[in-house]
Amino acid sequence: MKIITGNWKMNGSVAELEIMINAMQSINTKNKVIICVPFTMLGKKSDKISIGAQDVSSHENGAYTGEVSAKMLMDANAEYVIVGHSERRQYHSETNDTVKQKAKCAIESGLIPIICIGETMEEKQAGKTMKIIESGLRESIPADVKADVIVAYEPRWAIGADLTPTIDEISKTHTFIANILENMGLTGTPILYGASVNGSNAAEIMSIPNVDGVLVGGASLKPDNFLPIIESV
Ligand code: 13P
Fold first, then answer.
1. 3-class DSSP state of 221
2. pLDDT on residue 17
3. Contact, 3 vs 35, CB < 8 A?
4. Beta carbon of 160 within 6 Å of any ligand 1 atom
5. Is ligand 1 within 6 A of the CB of residue 118?
6. Structure confidence by residue, pLDDT tens digits, 115-149
7. What's the pLDDT at 220?
8. Distance 194 CA to ligand 1 centre (A)
9. Does pLDDT of 5 surpass 90?
10. pLDDT in tens, 52-72
11. How many angstroms does the Cα of residue 91 sit away from the middle of ligand 1?
């Protein structure tokens, strides 16, 4: 069983989510399918797809205009929430510390956080990939977490770029992540790979040890592109 997760980012509509949910009825898969949608598309329920959000407030409730709390996401039928996506880190200055706070709020409300980590091209070229991954894991995952969390490794330079690391690079980083998680007492935490996954590369990427699924951006928006990824494994 693999975890195939779509991240719709700021795309789609309620009608398009309904089309995706309907299209899913036609496939028979043992994989876990999650789609993380903008807040306005939450509220839907499907027996084939779990719904998630893409961000959550780091506060429980109160005077935080424009923010949405973990409890509100639960109230809108979300089961998962992406935290610390690189676009949040880049455009909203989220740090590992903010991400940890958000993940903590999610866990305390019963949501499963999908915690994203990954290096920029500059960091990669400076040979800092493993260092960024290790600090991302140790600083973004709340300490003593007993609840389920999912980790997503997204090399930031490969997102939306139609380019992926080599199979050997993905293998090395995912093994490194699995070892750090084991050292943190989180053995068995699913590790997703994300960045430029599509119907042509998904099966090979998911055959790599310690790749428990994928986090898909652009190719998750339309059933024609997303269903082949789900059916590829
Ligand atoms: P793409 O699949 O469009 O590269 O996006 C990856 C991503 O950011 C998923 O969260």
1. coil
2. 98
3. no
4. yes
5. no
6. 999 999 999 999 999 999 999 999 999 987 778 99
7. 98
8. 6
9. yes
10. 999 999 999 999 999 999 999
11. 15
State pTM to two decimals. Answer: 0.97
Q: Strands 32-36 and 112-117, how do they pair?
A: unpaired
Q: Which amino acid is at 69?
A: S
107 lines ligand 1 (CB under 6 A): no
Measured CA to CA, the distance from residue 83 to residue 73 in angstroms comes to 13
User: One of 87, 94, 119, 154 is an active-site residue; which one?
Assistant: 154
CB-ligand 1 contact for 216 (6 Å cutoff): yes
Nearest to 78 by CA among 123, 103, 109: 109
Cα separation, 14 vs 18, whole angstroms:
6
Residue 195 has which token pair?
Answer: 């960045």
For residue 108, which amino acid is it?
Answer: E
Clarify whether 119 is annotated catalytic: no
67 assigned to active site = no
pLDDT for the residue 162: 87
What the block records as the tokens of 96 is 């590992």
Domain 3-231 has CATH 1.20.210.10: no
**CB crowding 131-151: b at 16 or more within 10 Å, else e:** ebbbebbeebbbeebeeebbb
